Amino acid sequence: AKESGGRHFRFFTGEMDQRTTQQLKMESELRKAIINNELSLVYQPQLSLADNTLCGMEVLVRWHHPKRGIIYPGEFIPVAEETGLINDLGLWVMRHTCKQIAKWRKKALKTPRISINLSARQFHQHDLLAQLKELLQAHQLTASDIEFEMTESMLMADAEETARLLNQLAKFGISLAVDDFGTGYSSLAYLQKFPIHRLKIDRRFIQHLPDNGNDSVIVSTIIAMAHNMGMKVVAEGVETGEQQRFLARLKCDEAQGYLFAKPLPTEACADYLKNHQAD
Ligand code: C2E
Ligand code: CA
Ligand code: CA
Ligand code: CA
């Protein structure tokens, strides 16, 4: 028993070492990636379901690794969060988003509200608002140009502190969206304590619409309750016309997903903006 325990222990540490080495490698590579501009931003349109007009865009980060090619955020954001690099990475995203909006405006391209994903660490970072203010000012933007997306589970952590931080952002004029709604076991009644403008219903509740009766009930309930509380609703991951029509019937406000557009690199996004200017 002792022997097998020992063997088991060795196996376990071996695996741990490997994971740590991989993580350390990614951490140092990611650190360099931020400095060397290996990161880029893509933008995914959000459309009004009532009239198909463009009402927002979500900015998503990509990593162009010199050896591995493109790496998606699902792989490196968790590492960045764990190591604290997320604060530098998040600042990079905010800075380059603001820069890009200003560039488009200089070319007389109207841009809709741009949503930036915030991680938990960033949200609790004491100088987040100061950083944002500085960037907006430097690029002659206003708070209403930007929205922050925070996951439901992030907001659940510490209600009092969350309320304080959200109120600070809302007071400054930043619009706030709850990301991945429906996955974090919070209730809408709980969220009502916070100054939230938009709920984004998680893709997993959208993907089996309209056939799945359970999901249909959940989604229609979320939409109705959110509206009663004065919030707008965005459906994430809309991929079919059937889903679009179903959500429009339920009076869901906005939709985002491959049906309308994939996340677009800067140039493609400029073309998209040209073709979707409000009149
Ligand atoms: P998210 O915020 O839930 O972003 C939506 C994800 O769904 C994106 O994946 C997007 O490409 C994908 N998506 C959009 N429409 C569809 C669709 O119709 N079907 C399917 N199957 N997928 C769709 P992506 O870009 O890989 O990002 C993954 C996650 O990484 C994001 O999830 C977000 O949590 C995080 N992330 C991305 N950029 C940032 C960032 O700048 N900062 C932070 N903190 N997190 C980020
Ligand atoms: Ca998001
Ligand atoms: Ca989401
Ligand atoms: Ca997600």
TrEMBL record:
<protein>
    <submittedName>
        <fullName>EAL domain-containing protein</fullName>
    </submittedName>
</protein>
<feature type="domain" description="EAL">
    <location>
        <begin position="23"/>
        <end position="277"/>
    </location>
</feature>
